[in-house]
Amino acid sequence: MNYRKLGKILGKIMILEAILMSAPLLVSFIYSEALINKIAFIVPIAVLAIGGTLLQMLKPARNQLYQKEGFALTAMVWVVMTLFGAVPFVINGDIPNYVDSCFEIMSGFTTTGASIINDITEMSRSTLFWRSFSHWIGGMGVLVFVLIFIPESNDGSSMHLLRAESPGPQVGKIVSKMKVTTRILYLIYLGLTILEVVVLMMDKPIPGYENDQFFFSLLATFGCAGTGGFGFIPNSMELFNPFSQYVMAVFLILYGCNFSLYYLLLIGKVKEVLRSEEFRTYFIIVAAAIGIVFLSLVGQFESFPQNYTTEEAFRHSLFQVASLLTTAGFTTTDYNVWPMLAKTTLVLAMFSGAMAGSTAGGVKTSRIIMAMKGAYINVRKLINPRYVPKTKFEGKTLEQKTINDVFGFITLYSFIFLAVLFLLSFDPVNGQTVSIVSDAGEYEVKHGFFSNFSAVLACISNIGPGFEGIGPYASYEGFSAFSKIILALTMMLGRLEILPVLLLFNRRTWSKF
């Protein structure tokens, strides 16, 4: 294990986090917040800067990183980012419990959006900014950003880091040089971010928040870009005007696309984008899910406390499908009271996720396509042992190794899901009554199996809100400290797609043999 090289890169990450923390510190000055809110960021910035600088003095014997080192480093980086990123919440008192603070910022960096905060109005502006900004940081990936600045390697070290942090079964360069690839990805990411802020600014201000339009547009965009979902005003996005809700829904769907396709569009290869099997399947899933949810609502308006109009039903269907399919977790209404067909469709969307190479979580559309094709191939081989598969995906022959990797991922995903669900069953919160106050009125639900099931699914797919006791108008605050730690690790497993985290905590990763 190349400890000195790992330490050197980790030092770069610490310095980067210190630089990124200067943004919420600036917000604290802009809004003339109390001194404690400034100290809350100054202290970790100083510690990160000093620690990172000291680690830069290490002189590794070799510069290359093997695959296991790259994967373990990736998971280590996210742990360190979380441990330091949680400190401001504790110092300024917004989230005084350190375990809760780690849960909150891990949810931010992994773009999950699960929160333990019940009253968002009590949070300082710098805290609100840091929570939402963490979505934007984690959306494209911390190490992907660092790859822009570290020297290009010929030994595959950079590719190991990119594969460990980028979501999807197949990760590669879109141009010959890794540094250029990462720059292109981040420029596209930044461009979409700026565009969404500009479009949201065209809307009328939210009543009662007339002086906060730019600030709220920025935070909403951070959440959309990273497909996170932290709320920064009461009731998530419910108070936003319909125009902004439509804009956010469209951008969420766009952020759910593979960013490599945007590069193809920029260089004029529109036909290649339209030929993408994953791209077509993704939009078929989006359209089908919206249609099913909307049709399940139509004709039942009288039974909903919200008393939707047809336009509202369509808008909420569009927004909630876009939000949960892309694993953002923003909400505009209480879907807890929707018909079972609509809720089941949303659960399936949470499991599916969007395209590989996007900022979304979930299993990914490409894996679902490959798994279905792999299952078809296996059935054909059972019927005819001489069958030679010629199945293709994205114009290339689908190799058995790729199919096995997909089945392996889904198996690990399912095993971890069941294991975490089992652990949550010991939590004292089970059986307790949770009071919900939403646009559907005030009602009570019991925290039971479906609450735990949706909590695990929401965390491993990096979504945030689930159903019943942890629904769109509830929080994770009721879980025990043990459950919060388990769920925080589940978020990281979901964001890094399992293997880097397993390698980090595997004893053999750190042994000489």
User: For the residues shown, what is the average pLDDT?
Assistant: 88
- How many β-strands, per DSSP? 4
Based on secondary structure, the structural category is: mainly alpha
Q: Give helix and strand order, one letter per element, not per position.
A: HHHHHHHHHHHHHHHHHEEHEEHHHH
Largest sheet: 2 strands, antiparallel
Question: Beta-strand level of the residues, as a percent range?
Answer: under 5%
Euclidean distance between termini CA atoms: 10 Å
Helix content estimate: 55-70%
Number of helices: 22
Give the neighbour order of strands across the main sheet: 1-2
Shape: globular
Catalogue the unreliable spans: none
The radius of gyration is: 22 Å
Structural features, described:
The chain is 60% helix and 3% strand. It contains 22 helices and four strands. It has helices spanning 3-30, 35-55, 67-85, 87-91, 98-109, 125-140, 142-146, 157-165, 178-200, 213-225, 242-255, 259-266, 270-275, 277-297, 310-325, 340-352, 365-383, 400-424, 449-460, 481-495, 499-504, 507-510, and strands at 392-393, 396-397, 433-438, 441-446. The strands form two sheets. It has a two-stranded antiparallel sheet. The longest helix has 28 residues, at 3-30. It is globular and about 65 Å long.
